[in-house]
## 1
Amino acid sequence: MTTYVIKGARILGGQKKDLLIRDGVVAEIGTGLSAAGAQVVDADGLVALPGLVDLHTHLREPGREDAETVETGSRSAALGGYTAVCAMANTSPVADTAGVVEQVWRLGREAGLVDVQPIGAVTVGLAGEQLAELGAMADSAARVRIFSDDGNCVADPRLMRRALEYVKAFDGVVAQHAEEPRLTSGAQMHEGEVAARLGMTGWPAVAEESIIARDVLLAEHVGARLHVCHVSTAGSVEILRWAKGRGIRVTAEVTPHHLLLTDERATSYDPVFKVNPPLRTATDVAALRAALVEGVIDIVATDHAPHAVEDKECEWAYARPGMLGLETALSIVLDVVGDELGWDGIAERMSRTPARIAGLTGHGLEPAAGAPANLTLVDPAARWTVDPAGLASRSRNTPYAAMTLPGRVVATFLHGEPTVLDGKAVK
Amino acid sequence: MIRHLLSAADLDAGTATMVLDTAAEMAALADREVKKLPTLRGRTVVNLFYEDSTRTRISFEAAAKRLSADVINFSAKGSSVSKGESLKDTALTLQAMGADAVVIRHSASGAPHRLANWIDGTVVNAGDGTHEHPTQALLDAYTMRSRLGRLAGLNVAIVGDVLHSRVARSNVLLLHTLGAKVTLIAPPTLLPVGVDAWPAETSYHLDSVLPDADVVMMLRVQRERMDQAYFPSAREYSRRYGLDVARMRRLPEHAIVMHPGPMNRGMEITPEVADSPRSTIVEQVANGVSVRMAVLYLLLGGKA
Amino acid sequence: MSYPSSGRQSGSDASQRTGSPGTPAFRAPGEPATRPDGTVPAPVSSAPVAVSAPSPSETDVSPEGPAKTILSAADIARVVDRIAHQILEKTSGAADTILLGVPTRGVPLAHRLAERIHTFEGVTVPVGALDVTLYRDDLRLRGARALGRTELPPGGIDGRRVILIDDVLFSGRTVRAALDALGDLGRPSVVQLAVLVDRGHRELPIRADYVGKNIPTALAENVRVALTETDGVDEVRLLGGVR
């Protein structure tokens, strides 16, 4: 393995230091470091963060390799500063058996650009009727700890209760896509003034909030861990605050797009802005930002959802919901709450806490002597303009096209080897 | 110069009035022996209908033909559309065929907006999902103006399934632009969340609105809505929101009754009301051709 | 820290679709941009229906260059009298004759002629209006515009002598459009043409039967007819183009 000396990096924005990286770990931190045969990485003025961890990524493989593969999604992640991603289970076939989660896990290792941690489905085929073999997935080589039917809600309260209880046996967590399906039949966008004007069927906030309220009570009742995916409404924040106040073991994520964009975007009828849960109002966006800063919402997760061109270049109603997120997430977070969070706050919400929720012990650790060398170097002064064609994802459905954003990932190290250097993927 | 007519909101008061004035001139054509004008000779108008709507398609077709345009009817049935061709691919085909205008009817809200991004020609929205139907609103305004002599200051009651009605959305926007006062009357389940932002009043009670109404526009209510629990039964709906003779008698002497068609006789309107002299339902159909001629002339007539 | 969704992309899709704000959706009649009558790009007014009114404050030097009054109010009155006499002469006392004015200024001219004919001979000549906009061959060059009124006298035009009345005869294209429009409205026995001013430069084999005044003009010049009914003043002026 090559030895690297990273020169002049500011760990979590602190004083400039050199980092000596050898054998996959940070061997030494100091000033004026050098080592024979080491490759020097000039990081003068760059901020070093623990490698980012995404708790919510759709890699589409197996099944929709035309939209994304484990490899292209991994490359996207590395370019976005990530060293680990959790791959959602709604593939084809669904990741509801040990066989499928091991396949995804193996593909991730072969790509070698980030650690790919598969998420297992809660129910067979995401159908919401019968528990998948959760224990088999937990015991597999992929060591699954997060279970989610994301894309679908585990709507049946009895089934949800059983899932929450069952995964306690291996310290698992159920990540719920909170959407009461009976309230969102045919829904296209946030139910409110814009939907009324555009003549689109509404996705009411209460469809999310009622499920979160039910689930935190279920989690309390059975003493289980619950994770809430992509929280999108001000009302959900209130419920989470209440639940945390009661000591319920609930964690929650918010996506970059829900921190930035509102339902007014739908006025263009361009399905690049169609996502589930939908973009909400400015009031919701403000509440989500405040909740992330306050800690009521624990983490940022991308819900990176690549879609093939034909699934987006069509009528809004026929388009599939979802947006790209991996390559833009850090920049969006810096833009909207960077000042309030600071570098430590960003590391907490985009690396340490998601790693803890996912049980990824090698990630989310400060760059310190002896720690695994999973880290990313960010140029905080750089600004860049999003060009969909320039993204490493196989898909183009970014809602941020032509926006100029702050912060640029210059280098990412995974287990002591660079996956990104000079802002480019090394492989 | 507006290139497309996608929403009634595309029309300011001056433009909308110009459409109505032009339609009045076009209407005179119906009394002539030669019901044809050379105005759009050499232009191609495509009727792209993804939903069955014979009356709207025929109305646009008659309008285009009276202006001497070449008309191509492209309906979802028996075409490549039913074989799964995307709207974008269809748009590129029409573009290659040299369509100067595409009149589109589609079950998805916003489909005309998408189409307008993909072709150079003019796009006319002939009804998109539960969004808008701007030419219907224009012909309704034209009918009101013909019958009552003005639009400014009129009290217009729009009754029924506002939530799913493209006719209601376009009428609210256009009538507001032209100075009429609109009241939407429906059970609370059939008014959209967010309706407060519309330039219209709302009411749950038809009877209280009728004595001051100059125009009552009844919207079609589909019986299937019952299965989605929007209201308990067809009978309860007609009892509370249907227009029968007793209710019609509460209207002022001059008030008119409108319906965009097709009617559910016995549901939102009784046959006696639909066939009464107050009813403008047949006139609306005739006026539709004149208004669509005006729209096609103003959008296509002057383009270089 | 920026506010959600505001101002990150320049202009919404909606505003791009519906044209820039403040742009009139359709051109109004007589708007300057619609002026060139098939003879682009010369900024010449040849379209009688589209000649715009001089404003009362306008001096002898208009933005289009020096202006010269060709016919005063009294001249116009004399010319109308003369045409009325000629019509009576050539039509055996205006029997079975109707006057159709071409909007805008042809219509008041037709009414004046009818009034003079009635004064001279006590004959009532039916007057109507014939809008030719939808028959023009230059719509694509000019932009769609509001229509004038078409009103035929009771009894229509079949078998009768129709005299078309217009203010200025220039390229002849307006008259060509009027003849097409007449053909769709019926079958007159005879069609004649009366104009206040003939300024030459015909592009079609058309001539007037009654001419108030022949005015030789350069193509770049512009003839402006103002009538009390439409413009508050009776006057014909020649506006110098680029000299």
## 2
Amino acid sequence: MISAQLPALQVVLPLLAGPVCLLLHHPRLSWALATAVSWLAFFISLALLDQVLSSGTIVYALGGWAAPWGIEYRVDEINAFVLLIVSGISAITLAFARNSIEYEIRAERIHILYTGWMLCLTGLLGITITGDVFNVFVFLEIASLSSYLLISLSRDPRSLTAAFRYLVLGTIGATFILIGIALLYVMTGTLNMFDLSQRIAGVSDSRTVKTAFIFLSVGIALKAAVFPLHLWLPNAYAYAPSAVSALFAGTATKVAVYLLFRFFFTVFDPQFSFDVMQLDRLLLPLALVGVFVASVTAIFQTDVKRMLGYSSVAQIGYMVIGMSLVSVLGVTAGILHLFNHALMKAALFVVLGCVVFRIGSARLEDMAGIGRAMPWTAGAFVIGGLSLVGVPLTVGFISKWYLILAALEHGWWWLAALVLISSLLALVYIWRVIEVIYFQPPSDPSREIAEAPATLLIPTWLLIVANVYFGIDTSLTVGVAERAARLLMGDAS
Amino acid sequence: MEIFGLYNYWIVVVLMMIGLYVVVASGNLIKKIVGLNIFQTSVFILYISIGKLRGGTAPILLEEPAAYSNPLPHVLILTAIVVGVATTALGLALAVRIYGAYGTIEEEEIEEQEN
Amino acid sequence: MSPEFATALAVFLPLFGAVGIALLDRHPNPRETVTLVTATALFLVVCSVAPAVYRGDEPAVHFLELVPHLSLALRVEPLGLLFALIASGLWIVTSVYSIGYMRGNNESHQTRFYVCFAVALSATMGVAFAANMLTLFIFYEVLTLSTYPLVAHKGTDEAKRGGRVYLGLLLSTSIGFLLLAMIWTWFSAGTLDFVNGGILRDTLDPSLLPLMLALYLFGIGKAALMPFHRWLPAAMVAPTPVSALLHAVAVVKAGVFSVAKVTIYIFGIDFLRDAEATTFMMWIAAFTLIAASLVAMTKDNLKARLAYSTVSQLAYITLGAMLVNTTALIGAGMHIATHAFGKITLFFCAGAIYLATHKTEISDMNGLGRAMPFTYGAMLIGALSIIGLPPLGGVWSKWYLAIGSLEAGQWAMLSVLFISSLLNIAYLLPIPIRGFFGQSSDRGETNAVREAPLPAVIALTFSALGCLVLFFFPGPLYRLMALVFAGQ
């Protein structure tokens, strides 16, 4: 009985939890509710993935209204996988958030943060699960509005300007998407993704559809922080509370990248996106330039959170590279990296949360010599960092492996080489930090620094262990990513 | 003739450009929000235009077949308007907090203080 | 204990040791006992695999599948056994030596030192026993990462700089070239298993072979081919036991071992010979060989001179592999062993001198030989072995390398080997000669010098004796290398 309603519960539970968190008006209670709901959402997404893997795509008519009139939720391999990432990262970072948030945010605002967190989760899960393009816009705005709020809750006044900048750019992006949706509706008379995918083929020659495609591409790319539309991201990540940065790094951009996949491969078919519009010719160079520019910029950052923000921009580039290879292998690499990068970036931001909790800053010079005082935290950073670089036995290696295979499949040597060279840049910025942590004497030796408490360390290490585990046992991740890629490429075999 | 017949779409485009220009060119945070509003309004008009049929009626309890305006885009845009209002409210609230923290809402002066 | 179990144990035993060492952080004596016991046990475990390999078996262990059809797996073949035997055997000697050195020198962070050492040995065993290129690559990277803290051990600016060069070069060559070559191989051949006779013969366009070979050989940065050799001199900031075991044996030999392994089991020597693909890399090796010797002559710092000497000696092995015939490869394999004994002896001596006198420059070491007879005697033996004079082990490897170059019809390479031996004499022999016959500027100071602590002296005497033993009993070594090619 209840298993049939899972797609709705996935979204409705956090949506209801949001206002309740506000009403509870108590830091700990709100946190407890948010965490419980988040874990529940995680188990729902697990169940959904299991259902999809065993019995194929789930179609759910919201409120019992069938498709052309009502909103349809459509769960297939790819969004079931993204749902799992989003809810999983949210659940773990929430477990981490309690102490970290209490340290970083004024007590009377904490319950607001969890309200925002739940709404943001609702939005992200909603974007992912829905099969209706206008519904995408609505959930996108729910997620965006709550994320502006989450960023601005930090004590650092710069978070306010970061949130404002994100608000302006985010709204422009969302409005672009809205325009695209309108144009598509004009041409096809439907908002349902599945129907759209059937009907666009008949009208794909029209200028209106092409314009819609461009508006949608730019709008979503802005939300996904695809270079050069990434300007909002580094500051937003740097000044948001640590737990929020971890949530965003693991989920927000990932969902937007998922949307890119969804629109380029399902709503418009790949043949239109890449052969007619020749999107890959634009995306691939942009992504490559983005990878290099963002990585190099990351090297020169003094704030480690900001550095990781630039690193995220670079890593999104890898996903886009995988996408623009337009092959099963390439798309597999893209989706795989979506999952893997969520794991590593969330882990690294959470580690920084531990650091901030003890030394009150994420600036590189303040982190000198904390390796001895905080061995577990520093060790977690090393493993997470190596995963980012792509050292074997971590998830990063698996992503690189598939991405390079996909490049070689096209016979693109230069691309394989460039991907590898760029990961050396990641090595440089990660190693800068490791060197400071371990081999630089503390700037103020008299200051006593203790290891982060277990409530922070346990979630941190859960994420780190996941980084290693999914780097060794890839049957789930690669298996699902490959099935999703076949589905997107329309390759049933 | 056809070009002027679709004048409401021209208005959409013009408003859109004005809105975007204000957002980009203005350094004042409130003006940025105003620009954003103009930009969004243009899209509202777009949606309303595509649903409207000249001479069409509202599709409520029609006795006999008649030309009617498509209500769906109009309903959709109600949602978008709500979103727009929420965005404006949040943007203004942020502007207030920024004024509290920096004592100004001019972007250049804020940047000066941040560096 | 079945050979399969022993194979897996060889990789895990040092890790268990590392955990034990870490737990005994505050108790130096039990901690060092753990190191010694682990080292001895590891050597015995590796020995226990040997009979099976000599019989022609190849014990294999399969851990798990990383991506479909690509596993983390071990398989012991003769070349790997040779490398594992040397590394684990010399670990015992080095452990004895480190105890004397680290305590005599009052080094800090000793627990970290021993833990990283044990992890590095585990990785070395993994490299030696890897059943496919991916497994080798993984352990290769673990080896790089686990030795970085040892290089940067002192934490001074100089040590950090050295560590940065070390890590930067090793990781960037391995990720930039080796990983690319490996994925390319996987893409073309559909497998990365080490198969006797190679896996690329029918799957790779022979015209691309030289490029692939260059990617592999430069990618294996640990083989220190010029221009990617700078990490080795940079690594000399590490404490001497590290330079001795890791940068004369484990790490650098992991490099040339990988080169040999790739040559034999990925490309296949017949394929390389038929396609005549090795000429370019052969000249690179020859150039490295001579150039590094010449640089070594200019170095006054003892460890720097030894480091460049190592670069040059490693090129012997790469050169042997690039001659692509059985004799040369047997010579290359034997050189892994003989150079290991010779060079570790020399490093032990360098460390002993530093312990006793705190001197690092060769020109300051006049006359020390009379005060430190054991150390300088061992140094003489080590130097002569590396030069390749009887009655020391180094003769045999150079002998086979020379015959191998004749078999390949490479007179030029023969002359390179000959010139380089002369250069060896020119830069190595002056050190003991100065020690025994040189006149010190400050006699009183020299008279006050005593031998280094006992454990250090025992270790260096032992390894010097090893050089002698290898001369008289090269049989097992030769048979092991001959086994590699027995199947072809």
